[in-house]
Amino acid sequence: MLGDMTEARSLDPEEWEFWNTWMRAQRLLTRELERGLQRDCDISKAEFSVLVTLWQAAGRELRVGELSESLDWDKSRVSHQLTRMEKRGFVKRSQYGADGRRAGIALTDEGRRAAQNAALVHGGNIRRHFLDSLTPEQASVIRAWSEQAVGRLDEPRRGRNAGDDAN
Amino acid sequence: MLGDMTEARSLDPEEWEFWNTWMRAQRLLTRELERGLQRDCDISKAEFSVLVTLWQAAGRELRVGELSESLDWDKSRVSHQLTRMEKRGFVKRSQYGADGRRAGIALTDEGRRAAQNAALVHGGNIRRHFLDSLTPEQASVIRAWSEQAVGRLDEPRRGRNAGDDAN
DNA sequence: GACCTAGAGTTGACGCGACAACTCTCCCGG
DNA sequence: CCGGGAGAGTTGTCGCGTCAACTCTAGGTC
Known about the structure:
Structural class of chain A: mainly alpha
Largest sheet of chain A: 3 strands, antiparallel
Oligomer: homodimer
Mean pLDDT of chain A: 85
Distance between the termini of chain A: 34 Å
């Protein structure tokens, strides 16, 4: 809408520095947590997300589409991820329907164990590396910004509820 | 240090929600910017980082190790990225040394054009999607958190200067 | 009943990111 | 001279993430 006059100007050096520091902080934090997950639980962040989402379904089998919606992942991404995780023995695609199609996704026992353990360990890591590092003021400001950013960036896409996800 | 007693407890539901919202905001923002970069400039975020870093070197050829240090990327990652970008015609590995080894990395003309254009366009996108969305208070709090997080997570790794990078 | 379109899911291809293994040169000590 | 690191760079492999193309079935229309 309304193209304003300052279009052609990029960012000032200090704005770039702000942006770079911010991106760097994010990257270091997620890298640290991802490494922790790999080291302590031997699973990836993507695997964690799927495990926890299925775990929260408490035994109910989810469809690929539901996972896709819940995680806000592309359906093909979910499918690929499930293929890998099926190979690892974390999930099972149960076939149903007379002809044998339409997959429902279920955790295996090993998947359940991994989910439970990872939630504990990863939660602790998040506390140590993120939550504990925030002053109350920082926490509330960052929470507010996050919510507003999600609202701004996510509403356009799906104009309805904001379901849970697990990252 | 000193393991405190609350080890075995993971996160409360509201802490998880905070964490998830925060991760989600990050993901949506970076996804949006990455898409913008792809759409408007036909380059990826990784390509952008390399282009800008080389551009800032203002004609001086960088070594792989320098790029790796500057970007805080694994050396092998730099090498792979350069291979792809060489194929696209953005960079050139100039050989020197009598026997022909030790690669110096230089931008091609096309690389220079792409860098310049992308810095402008991407900068604008960052302004629109991020900087403009911050109240002054949010900006200062987030800046402070970022710096402190980088200090905490990055100092252990390299106990020296905090060079520039381009993300 | 034949078409055919919409939706669900899978597959393939490709770039990104991490890790380990390998090459090659330089340099140092014997 | 030769053997053995150390440092720089490359290669291979694999998982993640995205896009496009494909399959298959259900359901609707004629």
